[in-house]
Specification:
alpha/beta; 12 strands; single chain; 4-stranded mixed sheet; 10 helices
């Protein structure tokens, strides 16, 4: 159990020696409390969604064991994280702050991130189309050609600033127009909506992005990096800009593919989503979150090769490697690439 995910407000967590005791309190008169013990030595991370009751001794013990804790709202909004603070790497952060002032370094890294994102988006559409024997359909050929040209242009001219963001935006629009064809008809995708997500398709996409973002942000902290100073995303209060940067190459091959798997295999169905009249958004239910995290852990642990005959890896190792790529940039590396989907 590398991850412990707590998704219900009716759960309380307290410390029992070297174990966490989770108590799911009764929600009706006919239910009885359910108790579960989790050994701390089995944990690598904890994710807390919503407002369960977690005692201060629990948080102290997690910090003492160097087990990071991520906090999300019940709607899937990233709130923040805590760790032991022992991963501070002052020299690395000083280098990071200084390099942020170098426009050429920021632009070079940003263009490589967007190249990887667009390339991976194209590969996802190729795989999905091949599985449905639609590789030669006009819609697929048009989308693949546009994304291929976008990759070529990003590589060739190394655009910066608004030009790069404009190219990324057009590529994303092309990608989502085609991606929508692969959602099930009972839970269709029409267009991307974020705050709030307006339907189940957008709800699972946004939720997946947030969960992966939390893992990236935690990994950055564990390597002594400042998550708030990135290359592509702007520096803003309470925004994990560098984590958002590293999420870009993983959106399509990890988050979008997982979302389609959950919906098309009916692991998540309409009853696993709820409409919130307060903001007009659609969100996962507690039961839906439980099903999501089961599939998510399986996806993160699944082994694959980056090239034929190459060593096996998984998505958590991919996150580590992308953080390693940032460190190489800080150390003066120039030929640094981010994750390219095989």
């Amino acid at each position: 159990m590398p991850s412990l995910v707590i998704t219900r407000d009716t759960i309380s967590v307290r410390l029992q020696s070297d174990r966490l005791e989770l108590i799911r309190h009764a929600e009706t008169d006919t239910e009885r409390p359910v108790r579960l013990e989790v050994p701390l030595h089995d944990l690598e991370r904890v994710v807390i969604c919503g407002r369960p009751i977690v005692t201060l001794p629990v948080l102290h013990k997690l910090m003492d064991r160097h087990i990071p804790v991520t906090f999300l709202s019940s709607r899937g909004r990233w709130l923040g994280a805590i760790d032991s603070g022992n991963q501070t790497h002052a020299a690395r952060r000083i280098r990071q702050y200084r390099l942020f002032e170098s426009e050429s370094v920021r632009n070079a890294a940003a263009s490589r991130l967007i190249y990887a994102k667009i390339r991976n988006s194209r590969r996802v559409l190729q795989r999905l189309s091949a599985a449905r024997h639609e590789s030669d359909s006009p819609k697929q050929r048009e989308a693949a050609a546009f994304l291929r040209r976008s990759c070529t242009e990003v590589r060739r001219i190394r655009p910066a600033g608004d030009v790069l963001r404009g190219m990324e935006g057009m590529a994303a629009a092309c990608y989502f127009r085609r991606l929508g064809d692969f959602f099930p008809p009972e839970l269709p995708f029409v267009e991307r909506s974020r705050q709030p997500p307006l339907n189940a398709a957008n709800a699972i996409l946004s939720w997946s992005y947030t969960i992966v973002l939390s893992e990236i942000e935690t990994c950055l902290r564990l390597h002594g990096l400042e998550p708030g100073i990135g290359f592509l995303h702007t520096v803003a209060y309470s925004m994990p800009s560098l984590a958002l940067d590293l999420l870009e190459p993983l959106r399509a091959p990890l988050c979008d593919m997982l979302s389609l798997h959950l919906l098309n295999h009916r692991i998540l169905r309409a009853e696993h989503f709820r409409f919130d009249a307060e903001d007009g958004g659609t969100y996962l239910t507690d039961d839906g979150k439980k099903l999501f995290f089961t599939a998510y852990e399986q996806t993160m642990a699944r082994k694959f090769s980056l090239k034929s005959g190459g060593e096996h890896t998984d998505f958590r190792q991919v996150i580590e490697r992308q953080v390693g790529a940032v460190i190489r940039i800080l150390e003066g590396g120039e030929d640094v690439e981010f994750f390219h989907m095989p």
